[in-house]
Amino acid sequence: MKRIIYFILFCMITCPAYSIEDKHIDLEPIFLKLEDEEDVEEPSSILFGEAKQKEIYSLDNYMDSERSRSANIDVISREDIKSQNTPSFSQLLNQIGSVTTQNSGSDGNVTSVRIRGTDRVRFTIDGIRADRPSLTTPGVESQFFLADDMERIEVVKGAQGNVLGTNASGGAIAVETRRGRGPLSIEHESSMGNYGGFKERFAIMAGDAKKDYYISTTWNKSSGGMRTSNFGRIYNDGFNALNVVTNFGVRLLDNKAELRDVFRFSNSKKGLGIGYDNATFSYYNDPNNYAKNIDVMNSLSFKHKPSEAYNYDVKFGLYHNKNKNYTLQDWFSPDEYSLSSIGSTRLNFMTQHNFKYKEWNTFSIGYNLENEFIDGTSNSLMYGSWTPFPMNQFSSKYSGSVLQNDVYINDVINIKDKLFIRGGSRLICNSEYGTYVTPNISAALVLPTFKLKGAETKFRGSWGQSVNTPTLYQRYGGFRDSWMAWTGNNNLKAERMTSWDLGLEQSFMDNKLKFEFGYFNSNYKDYLAAYYTMNPLTWYTTGHYINIDEARIQGYEAKATWKPNDKIKFVLNYTYTDSEDKNTGFELPATPKNRLNGLVYWTPVERFNMYMGLETASERAMSSASMDTTPGYVDGKIGANLRLFSKNGLSVYLKANVSNLFNQNICMYKNTMNNMYYYSPKIRFMTGIFLKYNLPEKEKV
For residue 140, is pLDDT > 70? Predict the structure, then answer.
């Protein structure tokens, strides 16, 4: 009751605010537009989420000026995605400061995403939460999403991520799906590479002031390439995926409203590569160890702007996942058999209402409902601890659900176009973990640099609290096979976090040169962690989830951007992260202390562009329960796009990229049971032809 009273008082004293449009910063696209891309008149960006280069959307769920942001936010635009011509969402995220993606091997393997040292990351696609409830850890499964269908990626780092909801203590990643613009266009791509790399993609799109559509299908596959320190390359870790994406929008009520539906479907199979022989207690290449995954996602939204002083949106979301893991009998290990199946579903309903008062004030109030549930079964046939024992059949079935209701407010204040203050709070009611209030506040002060023309100095800071709830799998799930048992924990508590950060941004030469530096600090209560125990006689392992009393993450982040002209751009990021499990004194897992990455974009002529990237990371802890680590690495990549010709609306491009240029032994994971290291594939390349056709003017319909 006391928390509810505090929340009401906060609502009463918080000042509303107005988001402004900056008229001083020039952030035009880095790359020149292709000849066949036409500028078309688009609906109001404030209403329909069409963020421009100098705007951000995800921080407030409505359009805002990039200049006024008080959080550390990175944006990957459609131009950036096109220039790097990679289908990998993970690679795009990994080039951002304070963001670390970890893949346990080759394409299709589970890939975790961490911001500022934690995988508690809120991940949304078109406003709908996109991390499945049956994940073993909270976070983003970025291996199932292709960048080809993404218009824009915004990454909010730190405390302000809780503006978008729970499970965002590290930050938030918001993705916007591509939509059609201009006359009818058709895209087709055929690419091939080593390790059996293959991509076939077809898309059709169009849009005008009344309606738009985008339809895409992609077939993406690879034969793997993961290696281990014990027996070299794994030849049974191929990945085969089919993705379908549709985005339909229609403007209503004299273009004051929009109805939009975005649908995603993914069907994939991943060879897991390694089996375990109970007779010899050893690992081997296993062709009968694989996983199948189906994802269905839909976002239906209605946005309406009745007047300049008021607009609102209503959104319905569905995310369903079906995951099956197979470990089947074969000649090498006839006693091995297990099958597990997990189905998970999340339903979303949300609405936000924005009230603008004059030219300095916008007040937002919203409501979010999440209902998620899982249904799983697991069966396994195995020997006992020693091979003379008879086979044993194990089976289990588990299910569970959770309902959560959130009410929140969010305000922004603009004082003379120099001081910007944000404040907000969220009242969370969870059926399993109780009621919480999570406030946040941030500010940015933007001033002209003393006696230096064309320069600006920004001071920014934020403070916030967040709640991270365990996944349904952590609470209810579990399995048992020939070498390991994993159990859920019904007694898990919600994880709580208090975080703050401070930053300085300095720009020169009308924003052509920019430096950023910041410090962040996060303190956790009841931190969620995975712990393993192993029987030294049988090597049989039991895994379980627990709450750590306290954990801490702090660090520094720096960024330099130089864009002297429209033909070249340099970006350099450095992040230092220090973490500690207060129970053991060890570092928290999977985050390197030191991380440096950089990119160079170059467009010498309109028909050609290329990029070069460098990425380094120090060693990473494997578990907060031990001192085991994986070694650091250095990676380099390069890619290019060349338009071969354009004729009668048809443009043909040659695309190529190469990765892992400098290090052929990048260790991504370590199995602490047998001291076996897992390595990513060696040097990789993809090359192909990209065609884009615009319907001639006389044939437009």
Answer: yes
